[in-house]
Design brief:
55% helix, 13 helices, 301 residues, two-stranded antiparallel sheet, mainly alpha
C-alpha cells in the first residue's frame, strides 16, 4: 500500500491530488502535535544566535569530518562501507541515499552543529541502513512502511544527546509542523510565508525555505514527522523502551513488538553497530534523564 501511494504521488506530482496523497502517506498534523509546535514557537526566542557563534565549516572540511566518522564506525562494524560524496546535483543540504552521504556543493555548516549533523546522518541514517543490510531480511535496510517518523525522531534525539540540539533547530522543526497544518487547511504559499515571517518572527529567508519545503510537489507534509517522531521517542524512552533495538534497521514504532519477537527467536540478530555517542558520559547522563520523562521543551533546558 505504501509503495502504491508513492507511485501515485509520482504520477500526480504538481497536481491538486498530490497533497491528499501526501496526507494519506505521512499523516495529518494531530491536535497534540500542533499544540506542541505552537508551544515551542511561543516559548522560545526567535532571535537566538546560538548556531552562528563559532563560524562555519566549508564543504571540504565537513566532508573530511564525515569520512573520519564513517571510518570510526567501519572499525566497529566491518560491513559499514558508507561513502561520502560532495554532490554537484545538490546546491546545499545533506542527504543519505543507499549507504551514501551526499553533501550539497554550496553547503555552509555551522561549526557548532557539525557533531549533531554527523550523528543525525551517519550515526542514525547510515547506521540503520548498514545494520539492516546485515540482517537476513534486507527490507530492514530500505525501510519498513512508515519508518520515516521513528528514523527522524532518533536522528533528532541524537542531536540532543551530543549537545547539538539548538533553539534555532527546534524552532525550525516546530515551524514545519505549523506550515504543514496550514497547508492542509487550505493556506496558500504566501499565507504560510507570512504566518512564519510575521506571527512567529522567522527571517524571510528561513520562512521561505520552510514554506518551499512543504509546498514542493503540490504539498508535501512529510516535514511534520521530525517533531512527531521526537515526541514519540521521548514517550518510548520514558516507558522504559529498549533503545538499542531501534537500531536493528529502518523500522516504525509499530514494528517494535515484532522486532522483539524475531530477536527473541534469533531470526534477527542484535544491531551490528550502535551509535558512538552512547559511549560518552554526557550522553549516558542525558539518556538517564530522558528515562525519567522529559518534554521536547525540556531538551533545551
Amino acid at each position: 500500500m505504501e509503495l502504491d501511494r508513492q507511485l501515485t504521488m509520482l504520477h500526480d506530482l504538481g497536481t491538486a491530488p498530490f497533497l491528499y496523497e501526501s496526507l494519506q502517506l505521512h499523516g495529518a498534523v494531530s491536535p497534540s502535535l500542533g499544540e506542541e509546535a505552537e508551544k515551542i514557537l511561543e516559548r522560545t526566542s526567535a532571535h537566538s544566535r546560538s548556531e552562528s557563534r563559532g563560524g562555519t565549516l566549508t564543504v571540504a572540511e565537513f566532508a573530511k569530518l564525515a569520512r573520519r566518522e564513517v571510518g570510526l564506525y567501519a572499525r566497529q562494524c566491518p560491513g559499514f562501507e558508507a561513502k561520502v560524496h560532495v554532490s554537484g546535483d545538490m546546491y546545499s543540504g545533506l542527504m543519505v541515499s543507499r549507504g551514501r552521504l551526499l553533501i550539497g556543493k554550496e553547503s555552509s555548516i555551522p561549526r557548532k552543529r557539525a557533531e549533531a549533523l554527523l550523528q543525525h546522518e551517519v550515526g542514525t541514517h547510515l547506521l540503520t541502513y548498514f545494520n539492516g543490510m546485515a540482517q537476513p531480511f534486507k527490507m530492514l535496510s530500505s525501510g519498513l512502511p512508515g519508518y520515516d517518523e521513528l528514523q527522524e525522531g532518533l536522528a533528532v534525539l541524537s542531536e540532543y544527546l551530543v549537545g547539538g540540539l539548538s533553539t534555532v533547530r527546534l524552532r525550525v522543526l516546530a515551524a514545519r509542523v505549523v506550515a504543514a497544518r496550514a497547508l492542509a487547511d487550505g493556506a496558500t504559499f504566501v499565507d504560510v510565508f507570512r504566518l512564519l515571517d510575521r506571527t512567529y518572527e522567522f527571517s524571510q529567508r528561513a520562512a521561505y525555505t520552510i514554506t518551499m519545503r512543504v509546498f514542493r510537489g503540490g504539498g508535501l507534509v512529510k516535514d511534520a514527522v521530525y517533531l512527531r517522531g521526537l515526541m514519540g521517542i521521548l514517550e518510548y524512552l520514558s516507558s522504559d523502551g529498549d533503545f538499542h533495538k531501534l537500531f536493528v534497521g529502518k523500522i516504525a514504532a509499530a514494528h517494535v513488538p515484532v522486532i522483539e519477537e524475531l530477536l527473541h527467536r534469533k531470526i534477527l540478530h542484535p544491531p551490528s553497530a550502535l551509535p558512538r555517542y552512547l559511549e560518552k558520559d554526557t550522553a549516558v547522563t542525558r539518556m538517564q534523564d530522558l528515562r525519567k520523562g522529559m518534554s521536547v521543551l525540556d531538551l533545551l533546558e
